[in-house]
């Protein structure tokens, strides 16, 4: 017996039709209870790109979860009395920091728990005490060959250097901004 819907019938259901619907549902439920499928748990979770793939014991995909991608905001040199938000990037004493908690800055040493170190220069005396942080829109004209810095571009932080004519990426030596 199929279930009778009031909307399909175009009129109220009779008592016999209501009882028939409940009987049909009860019969279907009993079949499910008698022939229950074995429980399937999670056997592994795999990272594919920006998704977590949840798999069962027979490598069946039980679900996918897209991971959030944070939006980073380059703010330049850390300053006191500034409002900082989660995912703001700042430079302070040649170290690149990520803001973990929205706050108004006061004294950097008193708010260390609000920041996470993302990058710091190796401890080599020959390095300049300043390691500039740039975003593509405020990249200055390269003045001196060998000048280095960090460029925030496409949600990534890239180490860059000046060759006297242009800024280049350390990873592949490609010119920035062409």
Strand order of the largest sheet: 4-6-7-9
> What amount of the residues lies in strands?
25-35%
How does the helix and strand content classify structurally?
alpha+beta
Tally of discrete structural domains: 3
If you average the pLDDT, what whole number results? 84
N-to-C span:
71 Å
Order of helical and strand elements: HHEEEEEEEEEEEEE
Instruction: Calculate Rg over CA atoms.
Output: 30 Å
By DSSP (H or I, 4+ residues per run), the number of helices equals 2
Poorly predicted tracts of residues? none
DSSP strand count: 13
What overall form do the CA principal axes indicate? elongated
Helical percentage: 10-25%
Biggest sheet record: 4 strands, mixed
Describe the protein in words:
This protein has helices at residues 6-9, 15-34, and strands spanning 44-48, 51-55, 61-66, 73-77, 83-84, 88-92, 95-99, 103-104, 115-119, 133-135, 148-153, 156-162, 167-169. It is an alpha+beta fold and 178 residues long. The chain has three domains: 1-36; 39-68, no CATH class; 73-169, no CATH class. Strands 4-6-7-9 form a four-stranded mixed β-sheet, with no helix packed on it. Strands 10-11-12-13 form a four-stranded mixed β-sheet, with no helix packed on it. The longest helix has 20 residues, at 15-34. It is elongated and about 90 Å long. The mean pLDDT is 84.
């Amino acid at each position: 017996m199929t279930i009778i819907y009031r909307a399909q019938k175009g009129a109220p259901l009779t008592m016999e039709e209501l009882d028939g619907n409940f009987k049909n549902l009860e019969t279907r439920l009993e079949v499910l209870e008698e022939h229950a499928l074995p429980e399937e748990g999670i056997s592994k979770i795999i990272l594919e790109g920006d998704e977590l793939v949840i798999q069962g014991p027979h490598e069946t995909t039980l679900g996918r979860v897209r991971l959030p991608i944070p939006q980073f905001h380059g703010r330049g040199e850390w300053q006191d009395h500034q409002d900082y938000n989660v995912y703001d990037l700042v430079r302070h004493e040649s170290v690149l920091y990520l803001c973990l908690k929205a706050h108004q800055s006061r004294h950097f040493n008193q708010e260390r728990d609000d920041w996470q170190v993302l990058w710091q220069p190796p401890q080599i005396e020959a390095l300049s005490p300043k390691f500039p942080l740039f975003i593509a829109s405020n990249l200055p004209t390269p003045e001196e060959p060998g000048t280095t810095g960090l460029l925030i571009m496409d949600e990534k932080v890239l180490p860059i250097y000046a060759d006297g004519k242009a800024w280049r990426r350390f990873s592949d030596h490609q010119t920035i901004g062409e």
